[in-house]
Amino acid sequence: MFEGGETALESENNRVNVGGSYADKNPSQENTGEFLIIYELEGCQKAVNFLSEYYGVKRMKIILNGRKVGKGYEAYYFEGKAYFTKRGLKKRNVLHEFYHFLADSKGLDISERVEERDANHYSRAFLE
Q1: Closest CA to 61 of 105, 21, 24, 3
Q2: Which residues, listed in sequence order, are joined to residue 64 by a DSSP beta bridge?
Q3: What's the number of CA atoms in the CB half-sphere (13 Å) around residue 66?
Q4: Contacts of 47 (CB under 8 A, 6+ apart)
Q5: Which domains does the chain have, with CATH numbers?
Q6: pLDDT tens-digit profile of 64-88?
Q7: Which of 28, 64, 94, 102 has its CA 20 to 30 A from that of 122?
Q8: Is the CB of residue 100 less than 8 Å from the CB of residue 18?
Q9: How do residues 25-55 score in pLDDT, each as one tens digit?
């Protein structure tokens, strides 16, 4: 965490906020609800495209390919693509990998430990 309990993305003054006081920079409840509806009715990729548009970043590609995901893991992000096992394609995992995508898109240079913690917080906060 950075000053005042903010996450790495918050400290860069980007549009991403993961639980701080920048409520206007996070998806509103309406947009969060819209993401969930799109996810259920139109699929994972369209829901991620919706969030990408909201944050003003290129689209993250979703790939269902368990061979690219390490043994014992459900998902993996690398260079604009998120790989998932069949079992791992869940909203929480998608949001977790999307956070990695946002950090990558914004060019943040943070430790893996901090980024993992922030990604977990982002996905949990988003689904509350």
Answers
A1: 105
A2: 84
A3: 9
A4: 35, 36, 38, 39, 94
A5: 14-127 (1.10.10)
A6: 887 889 888 999 999 999 999 988 9
A7: 64
A8: no
A9: 466 777 788 888 888 878 889 999 989 998 8
